[in-house]
Amino acid sequence: MAQKKYVYFYGVSKELTEGDSSMKAILGGKGANLAEMANANLPVPPGITISTEACAYYSKTGGKYAPEMEKQLKVQLKKLEVNMGKKLGDPKNPLLVSVRSGAAVSMPGMMDTVLNLGLTDKSVLGFVEQCGNERTGWDCYRRFIDMFGDVVMGPYTGLTHHDFEVELEAIKKKYRAKEDTDLTAEQLKELVGIYKKVYQNKVKKPFPQDPIEQLDLSIRAVFGSWGSERAEKYRQINKINGLLGTAVNICTMVFGNMGAKSGTGVAFTRDGGTGHSKPMGEYLIDAQGEDVVAGIRTPRHLDDMPDEESKVWKKVHTDLLKIMARLEKHYKYPQDVEFTVQEGKLFMLQTRNAKRTGLAGVRWAVEMATGKDFYTGESQPKILTQKEALMSLSGEDLEQLLFPIFDIIAEKKGKVITAGLPAGPGAAVGKIVFEAADAEAAVAKNADEKVVLVRHETSPEDVGGMWAAQGVLTSTGGMTSHAAVVARGWGKCCICGAGSLKIDYKEKTVTIAGKVYKQGDWISLNGSTGNVYAGQIPTQVSPVVSAVVDGKASAKKDPIYKMYEQVSKWSDANRTINVRTNADTPKDSKAARSFGAEGIGLCRTEHMFFEGDRIWAIREFILAEDQKARKAALAKLLKHQQKDFEGIFKAMDGLPVTVRLLDPPLHEFVPNSKKDQQEMAKRLGVPLKKVTERVQELHEFNPMLGHRGCRLSITFPELCVMQTQAIIGAACKVAKAKKPVKVLPEIMIPLIGTKAELDFLEKIVRTQAEAVIAKTGVKVNYLVGTMIEIPRAALTADEIAETAEFFSFGTNDLTQMTFGYSRDDIGTFLPDYLNEKILPSDPFQHLDQTGVGQLVKMGVKLGRETRPDLKCGICGEHGGDPESVKFCVKAGLNYVSCSPYRVPIARLAAAQAAIKG
Ligand code: ADP
Ligand code: MG
Ligand code: MG
Questions:
Q1: How many other C-beta atoms are found inside a 10 Å radius of the C-beta of residue 689?
Q2: Whether residue 205 is found in the same domain as residue 298
Q3: How many Å lie between the centroid of ligand 1 and the Cα of residue 294?
Q4: In this predicted structure, what is the pLDDT of residue 177?
Q5: How many angstroms separate the alpha carbon of residue 353 from the centre of ligand 1?
Q6: Which CATH number covers residue 68?
Q7: Nearest Cα to 434, choosing from 491, 509, 500?
Q8: What is the reported pTM?
Q9: Mean pLDDT over all residues of the chain?
Q10: Is 36 known as a binding-site position?
């Protein structure tokens, strides 16, 4: 049987190199990319990579090497020695190596690198002779003892870098050396002696003088660090699952600390903050390894390199830029590289995909695919195809372009006081208020006033205050809580379920981590991360929103807007599914349309019931004793509703509009506080007792499973009558206006569980619609369909499709009812479920494709068996979640519908799904 391969060689030549960048899972990111660079004949110091599988073996066996690994390592080490013409520990001509960790994804928390391994009291002399520089030799040795002591032995002896650092400072003081580089060879040699004592004191053993033992201890330390608490924690927080372990890279040393023609640095092919295509980087002359990032000396800027005193740097600069350009083209992604220059010769030590902001991601994508700088118009190499550019982006990247964001540097400096769910994106800064009314009042008094509404949760009564506020922060509720859904609809910043908030409405204070914040104190929210900051963090407005929503001409010239437009165009050219929006006002509809919405997938009529006087009409309806009184109350609502629909139809001229009949339980429309109930009694001219009794009657133990949805209209058919009259009345009116509007209304009956429920209401809807059409004499085409949001509806979709002309999957309720999780209460146990990996993610954010998704697929399939041209869409919050959108494409839906500000993100996700196929 063939032996399992655990140890790979790279460098010297393409022929000797055994891996490539496709092998990240086995060689780790660092090892795979070192091999890839060696394959491309780039100057990489040769080395060996021990695979992540060897680490897995080591972890599983509680610290044993795989027997094949030990054998293979010996063979590969020999190969390295032969090719380098040096031997580990050789007193005349020693080979020195670094030992580096590297998992498949870059992961802080893993073991730090050890440089200069192989130095001993004997080999240091050979090394000095070989490099002809006594200072370099002793400098390397003292660094090695420090790193080995700290990184390899530290975890179980308590030895730290600091223990060595104090001795370094002491000797610098003793010899009045300002910088480390001012120490002479003799002084460094003295320091090595001191370091060895420091080591022996803590480790209780002398510093190992056998390079094989040094290497063995280092490999074990790397493997061991995989299971360390901080590495585990990091993987948990960042949801990194399914990796085998870390690889170990043993790399031949190259020396940046050999004087004025040597140095080390890091560079990026493009700017990861702004996205600018100019390479940038930093380096230090006469330095090794992490000196650049350690902040020991101030590094120099890459642009200054050609002007260095030593002439070698000019060529190094040219070579480096050439290599970086090659790497970027090769990986089709901007790179972050590490390099070292040894006596004028450049070596590449690492390359990886660079980290970036959303703005940089978009700029990289469009510039790399168009070959044009969006700011200056200058040309640059075309590296990506349109499709590749789209695939390189994420929904979050686009999202960052659409919302006000914090100044990156200022946010870094800010203090996170607590965190919650990132429920509504963007940044918000304002003074704390606790009541919606206070928020409204503050802004009414001074339009420039900035407030943040802080509450346990919000309810439909609070929408005015939520609109007035810059952002909303709640202590309970999840991603589909009232606050979250409403805020996302407006593109407003919102953080939900920040459980550590202790709000005292009476005192008007909120206590966070023991500190009390009063009404009027400043607070800043990052709704894209969920972080909450004390004080004011500066923000910037999105030019995309200014251009798209406000139609500002100057914003349309902004390169950020142009990039957004480019991405959107490409998305539309590639996608196969329509994108609609969830909107219930003409204003939101207009905004959504300018973001590219191709119709309304969900117009929630109840949102129209809260504005102004309307709430009084609906309350009158609720209190009414008989159908006559109910009809009278509804008559007052009719003209308002019809006006709203007229506005929406005009905004969506030529596009379909799905209107859902009243859905929420009626108790949501009556006040809870005594004071408000008194006001209600007075205003409607009834005794208080009647109000309180009715409120009590409306109380339900499980309102989400109670008297709501189609059940309301079955009890009160006059509701369905009024709403149909309003919808079709509006449609006829705008259709026959002087400037006729093309209307395509789709009337949607919610919460159907049986075909009979649908049939009952469909009849009423059709009768009323036909009557209006006959009366106005305008021929308006309309559809009657239903939401599939109760599992029984999905299971009997073939029957339901006999009546329904379209399906819209209401995945919020469908998730709630399939799992049996109340979406308003999931916050109490979801964190435990995520921690224990009982759920992979919040199913209200990311559609559960295995369970809920199956019901969607089944619903589509059964429905189309009955009615082949059945129009199917999704209108839950999932319609704006990229992964869920991709699922919808596969499930054969005709459209997804999401809140207006998520439309561009859904367009991108739909294109990505189509490209991936
Ligand atoms: P990290 O993953 O933390 O970046 P690395 O293993 O890349 O750790 O290395 C830390 C530093 O040491 C980097 O600056 C790297 O360039 C340098 N380094 C690593 N191996 C060598 C080597 N063989 N020769 C010279 N410098 C090296
Ligand atoms: Mg490091
Ligand atoms: Mg590195």
A1: 9
A2: no
A3: 13
A4: 87
A5: 16
A6: 3.30.1490.20
A7: 509
A8: 0.83
A9: 92
A10: no
